[in-house]
Design goal:
The chain is about 75% helix and about 0% strand. Helix 14 packs antiparallel against helix 17. Strands 1-2 form a two-stranded antiparallel ribbon. About 55% of the residues are buried.
């Protein structure tokens, strides 16, 4: 578990590369082409580093860098284990694809301007001088959250990505975006305040914020105190993850943003909250079991997981806008992840890890497709899109593949993830796990119904009597053109969903090994070893 010089240099790069890229793109505000190039290079570098960390942690276990070689618990520790490396690689993949989508839109907008054409939805001009640096700062904040070895820097990571998300959500300054941004800001500030209060309470009770040191110290606290601390953290993370009943803000906030912003928000931001819940339940407060009733909080999480699944799915089937349908399914499928985490077994955690990776990619792909739909048809209202599959069959196929995957139709990866979670619930036994098994099946059927309803109304059938199609929408002779530069990364995102299906076996094996690691002592042992190595270095440097 020792850290060699190469890995030492590798671990901070997912944070440093986007921050350096943000600085360069800010300086190059008058050169959109330079900004686009720098953004793509920076995010490609992050993806390369994340994949390399997956290889290293899979082979050698958790790796740690303590900034400045300070003692453990004093310096800023960045910890890369199987879980954080997998989350980094998945997030880097979707951020790069979304950035390529943005680059395609921006290049198309420039061509429209050069030829004197009017920008349409497909070539929507983003304020690039602000967009690129902010997007890169968002990527850096996500990386900080995944690599943070202590609660305070986890808080810092959340605040960095949330500050960037405030800007991205309100790009363009339209009334609906400002209104949605206001709601988002208020909810985010509330969750941040609760999280910061939790950080202060944990430090007051234990004298440390290092996640590797906290389990032993938290275990010595009186049970009511430990329970209160865990509840505070879970409420803060539950808001960020959009768990019912703390999820009402999401469907009203995400759909108003530009297509690439909505895609990265939907695919990634809630999963950072899920990651924090994962760490809280497996690292800080390990040992709960819902099946035998030894952990009442696990049972509460199971109830909330069931409510999140069903309420989100019911909300999805009554929506008339594609983005809102996808926003409600996003909320609904967070419930599957909480289901696995609440079970706490290796099989349950394996299923949750698998499902997080699956859902990040699927949700991003679907929202990118919705961006293409808006570009092609001028709207995402399913009531006004009839016949789009006939007008653009390739667009119908791009929607259909991830939609079936999201619903869990075999043999897609969504089916594999759901099957693992159902098996974990059956193996756990007990009334609530069995209720979750039934709820998960019902939710899958409701998701299929919602996806099929969109397909039937927006892609397959014609317009309803009395309905009018926007100019150029859903017509084979429409003048609206979808930027090819935005189509290619969307095709890439859909292709990645197919890769997850083909590679479901290796991915599940990696998820299972990751679950085994987080249930073991590798994380804490790696940080302890890093502290000993740092002490040795300081002693050698002391005259």
């Amino acid at each position: 578990m020792s850290v060699d010089a190469g890995v030492t240099a590798l671990i901070p790069l997912p944070v440093l590369l986007p921050l350096l890229g943000a600085a360069v793109t800010l300086l190059a505000a008058r050169s959109p082409a330079v900004q686009r190039g720098v953004s793509v290079v920076a995010l490609t570098g992050v993806l390369g580093c994340a994949v390399a960390l997956m290889v290293v942690t899979g082979r050698d276990g958790a790796q740690v860098v303590t900034v400045g070689a300070w003692p453990t618990g004093v310096g800023i520790a960045l910890v890369a284990d199987r879980l954080s490396s997998l989350m980094l690689a998945t997030s880097a993949t979707v951020t790069l694809l979304v950035m390529l989508f943005s680059v395609g839109q921006g290049a198309a907008a420039d061509r429209e301007a050069d030829t004197g054409g009017a920008d349409g939805p497909g070539t929507q001009r983003l304020p690039i001088s602000v967009y690129h640096p902010t997007f890169l700062v968002l990527s850096a904040g996500v990386s900080i959250a995944f690599l943070a070895g202590d609660l305070f820097n986890l808080f810092v990571g959340f605040e960095v990505l949330l500050a960037a998300s405030y800007v991205l959500l309100t790009l363009g300054g339209t009334g609906p975006r400002v209104a949605a941004g206001t709601t988002y800001v208020l909810v985010a500030l509330a969750s941040s305040f609760i999280f910061l209060a939790g950080v202060g309470l944990v430090y007051a009770a234990t004298g440390t914020l290092a996640m590797a040191d906290l389990p032993a110290r938290l275990a010595t606290l009186p049970a009511p105190v430990a329970l209160a601390l865990q509840l505070v953290l879970l409420v803060a993370f539950g808001i960020k993850a959009a768990i019912f009943p703390l999820s009402a803000w999401l469907p009203d906030s995400y759909p108003t943003a530009p297509a690439p912003v909505t895609a990265i928000f939907a695919g990634l931001l809630t999963k950072v909250g899920v990651y924090a819940i994962f760490r809280t339940r497996t690292l800080l407060f390990p040992g709960g079991s819902a099946g035998d009733g030894t952990d009442a909080l696990s049972m509460v999480l199971l109830v909330l997981a069931l409510a999140t699944m069903v309420v989100g799915a019911l909300g999805a089937i009554v929506q008339s806008d594609l983005k809102r349908v996808l926003s409600f399914t996003l909320v609904s499928h967070i419930g599957y992840m909480i289901f696995g985490i609440a079970l706490g077994s290796q099989l349950g955690l394996s299923g949750a890890i698998f499902y997080v990776v699956h859902h990040i990619v699927i949700q991003t792909a679907l929202f990118l497709v919705s961006g293409l739909v808006e570009a092609r048809a001028g709207t995402t209202s399913v009531e006004r899109l009839g016949g789009l599959a006939a007008a653009a069959p390739w667009l119908g196929l791009l929607y259909l593949i991830p939609a079936l995957n999201l619903a869990g139709i075999p043999p897609f990866s969504g089916f594999v993830g759901k099957l693992v979670l159902l098996r974990a619930g059956v193996d756990e036994g007990g009334l609530l796990p069995w209720a979750l098994v039934v709820g998960a099946v019902v939710t899958a059927l409701l998701t299929l119904l919602a996806m099929a309803r969109v397909w039937g109304k927006a892609f397959w059938s014609g317009l309803a009597p009395g309905q009018e199609r926007p100019s150029g929408a859903g017509s084979a002779t429409a003048t609206r053109r979808v930027p090819a530069g935005a189509v290619v990364p969307t095709v890439g995102a859909v292709a990645v969903t197919l890769v997850l299906t083909v590679g479901a076996g290796p991915l599940y094996a990696y998820a299972s090994a990751t679950a085994s690691d987080v249930l073991g002592d590798g994380y804490r042992a790696a940080v302890a070893q890093s502290g000993q190595d740092a002490s040795t270095v300081r002693e050698e440097k002391t005259p």
